[in-house]
Amino acid sequence: MFAFHSGLAGYQATPLLRAPSVARALGVATALVKDESDRFGMPSFKILGASWAIYCALCELLSVSLEPVIPLTQLRQLLEGIQPLELVAATDGNHGRAVARMATLMGLNSHILVPDEMVPARRRAIVAEGARLTPIQGTYDDAVRAAAALADNHHLVISDTSWEGYQKVPTWVIDGYSTITHELATQLDALGERAPTVIAVQIGVGAFAAAMVRYAHQKAGTVLVGVEPADAACMLASIEAGHLVEVAGPHRSIMAGLNCGNASPVAWPLVSRGLDYIVAIDDDDARRAMRLLAQDGIVSGESGAAGLGGLLAGRRQLKLPPTSTVLIVSTEGATDPSAYERTVGRLPDVRAR
Ligand SMILES: Cc1ncc(COP(=O)(O)O)c(C=O)c1O
């Protein structure tokens, strides 16, 4: 995956930053933030999963071997033989925008289905990538079902969540996120830091958390804390039930990327066994985390800051040792700029995407 991503035009590792205000607030020695607010010029980490999954799915369609990685320009030429082809995805914002960007790059159309309550800024961002956007009455989960129903020979569904009979693409999405952890290894060395002892991971369908579980399991003793919005805590409900359960909507958290009523079945075995704690938080916890990250110069959107929100909210129960090295992945920048400014204050111009 890293070989694929690092070969794409515009590749740069996202920064790993020290966050002294965050460390103070958590009462720990060190807080590090992997800042995903600019990934290939997009304001979230999601393009890592979408790009790798699309690459793999198109190679499969064309019967091209995944390795060695071939340039996207070459793949685009091969695609001319099987047009028309449209990429279809459901999203609560970031994944769909990334799929739309990739489709345009590959010379394909994209059709992105969104819950009808999605804020205009996120809708506009998806359309600006060249997508046809369809609002679906209901929740993100309703949009997922509607997208799944569109699959045929000319409509390739690129979902970051899975369901019965549809597992390959969402597994590639999880694999794609491993570029974050690949970069971390070098960046921790460069900062002279040891491996994190505590990692907070925000959970929507659980694909991102699954990638972080794989990473944390290579390091004995790392404590992994999952974080969800209180009214869309589908992983927590499933862990309590011992099997996957749906948390019915409406899901109205400002943490839009985490507003999911169903955890992904391919992520479930890894995440349910790999988390040490799981915390459900309110919107105010996310807002507090956004403000705190801003004090350390990090622009983090509602879903991006949720991991830190969980550590702040659960601090008493988690009893983080003062010697801890905490890692937070700020998975998005200000994807709803006016909401960001209402919560935090004026957005630095350079990040106002
Ligand atoms: C910014 C952000 N962070 C985290 C997540 C959670 O990822 P996953 O749905 O894989 O759990 C999302 C999902 O859309 C997101 O947009």
List the domain count as a whole number. Answer: 2
CATH-derived architecture of the largest domain? 3-Layer(aba) Sandwich
Structural class: alpha/beta
Q: Can you tell me the residue ranges where pLDDT is under 50 for at least 5 consecutive residues?
A: none
The CATH class of the largest domain turns out to be: Alpha Beta
Average pLDDT confidence is 96
Task: List SSEs in N-to-C order.
Answer: HEHEHHEHEHEHEHEHEHHEHHHEH
The first-to-last residue Cα distance is 26 Å
> Can you summarize the main beta sheet?
6 strands, mixed
DSSP strand tally: 10
Proportion of residues in helical segments: 40-55%
Q: What is the strand arrangement across the widest sheet?
A: 1-2-10-7-8-9
Q: Can you count the helices?
A: 15
Radius of gyration: 19 Å
How is the CATH topology of the largest domain named?
Rossmann fold
Instruction: Work out the oligomeric state of the chains in this entry.
Output: single chain
Distinct small molecules: pyridoxal-5'-phosphate
Explain how this protein is built.
The structure is a single chain. With 353 residues, the chain is an alpha/beta fold. It folds into 2 domains: 2-44 and 176-351, Rossmann fold; 47-170, 3-Layer(aba) Sandwich (Rossmann fold). It has helices at 2-6, 20-26, 47-61, 72-79, 94-105, 120-128, 140-148, 168-191, 207-216, 234-241, 268-274, 283-295, 306-313, 315-318, 337-343, and strands at residues 16-18, 30-35, 86-90, 109-115, 132-136, 155-157, 198-202, 223-229, 277-281, 325-330. The strands form 2 sheets. The chain has a 6-stranded mixed sheet, sandwiched between helices. Helix 5 runs parallel beside helix 6, helix 8 crosses helix 9 (207-216) and helix 9 (207-216) crosses helix 11 (268-274). The longest helix has 24 residues, at 168-191. The chain starts with a helix and ends in a 10-residue tail after the last helix. The model has no long low-confidence stretch (mean pLDDT 96). The structure holds pyridoxal-5'-phosphate (PLP). Pyridoxal-5'-phosphate (PLP) is lined by residues 44, 46, 92-95, 160, 202-209, 257-258, 303-304, 331-332.
